[in-house]
Amino acid sequence: DLTDQPLIRAARTGLTTVSIICDYKLSLRNTAIDSPEFNQAKSQAHSRSAKKLLALCWRNRGTYVKVGQHLGAMDYLLPGEYTKVLKVLHSKAPQSSLEEIHGVLKKDLNIESVDDVFSEFCKTPIGTASLAQVHKAKLKSDGSTVAVKVQHPKVQDLADKDMDMMDGAVRLVKKVFPEFDLMWLAEETRTNLPLELDFLVEARNCTKAAKNLKCFDWVKLPRLYWDYCTHRVMVMEFLEGGQVNDSDYLCKNNIDFRHVSRLLGKMFSEMIFVHGFVHCDPHPGNIMVRWRQNQQEDSKFKKLASYLGICKPKLEVVLLDHGLYRELSKTFRYHYASLWQSIITFDMAGLETHARACGSGDMFPLLATIVTGRSWQVVGRDGIKNVDFTREEDDEIRDGAGQFLPHISTVLGNVPSEMLLVLKTNDHLRGLDVSLSVLRGHASGFVDMSKCCLRALRELKHERID
Known about the structure:
- Pfam families: ABC1.
- One of its GO terms (biological process) is mitochondrion organization.
- Belongs to the protein kinase superfamily. ADCK protein kinase family.
- This is AarF domain-containing protein kinase 1.
- This protein is of the alpha+beta class.
- Among the domains are: 2-92, no CATH class; 326-461, no CATH class.
- It has helices at 6-27, 36-60, 63-72, 80-86, 98-108, 155-176, 183-196, 199-212, 247-252, 257-275, 300-308, 330-344, 348-357, 364-372, 376-382, 391-403, 405-414, 417-435, 443-461; strands at 118-121, 127-128, 132-139, 145-151, 219-220, 233-237, 242-243, 277-279, 287-292, 314-319, 325-327.
- Strands 1, 2, 3, 4 and 6 form a five-stranded antiparallel β-sheet that branches. Strands 5-10-9-7 form a four-stranded mixed β-sheet, with helices on one face.
- Strand 2 (127-128) and strand 3 form a beta hairpin.
- 41% of the residues are buried.
């Protein structure tokens, strides 16, 4: 397959990068920056370039799709023309052939045939992501229905070369457009990619996260079958449910959008502030929701209560894909929790202090805007608890993203690497709220977050913070 030849991939990357640069240079030449014609030409160039970038990600697959997914969630940094086009990568990714998948399984599980382990193996994947795809199967040993996650066969071999190509593209763009610096993204991806490519790391992350979240009986993580887990294969409990942004499924099953949003807020506040161990890739494909019947099915009383409507089923959130987690230092958690608590309580002095501690420098208002997804006018003047998020505010933020792009890049280049992944998590969660038509910053969410912040701060203040 020519797609997997490094020279072809490099040529495709270089040609796409040069094409995008030339498009902007030619489209915007001889046009006054403050004119309506300039804005229109720039928007059209954004749209064309976004489609070129999507085509590059789709054809080169693997690492490129992973980076494209990240860019698609960065509403505070990239123009809407880019994020709208690249968001398609959250639900669609190129597939590997069944023959390739069988090859990985046979090599990693040391078997002659897939039939040696599975009595049934669905030919069509139930989900395809940037680095792997998932097939439904049935174990031969005990008849359990399982989900089999298999890494795309060549993604690991190509990862280092792909990152070198993307580094080169980012450096070229920075040289031509100094205000557009995404080196921090390239560096963070290079650091995290090896961890995401090791499914034994993912399995350990899943186990630890399940332990941390056991306080919530409505959170469900898949049980692992360790005998069939390797660096490229992970076999786990098969869980059913609807994708969290599937509005038809939610409506059909009478699931309240706002309730789902609040549960997600609780879960991620617990991970970030209390445990400091956070799932950093919560895009819609990695979260499902479903109604859960009472699990004590052997209790006749419980069955009768459920039948009479006394004991109603509870909503359950299923969290998948545990490849990308970040361990947050106590120092970072202290300042990040304090920053949010200052924002919520409208403590501007505290906001500045803790934003500076997180690396904002004098641009602490900008960091507060990035963290909250709200305009500085709301954060610094009105208070985010007091003002609903509006379309006008959204437009203001998007317009500001282009205007303040050099400053945003500077801030993101200065904050700790921990902050970058937490911001990525925030981006995805805000994107879910948008897809569910939930008002950003609804009051109940701030109450839940504040509780987690205070719990974390009580514990952290008893320990030494550098």
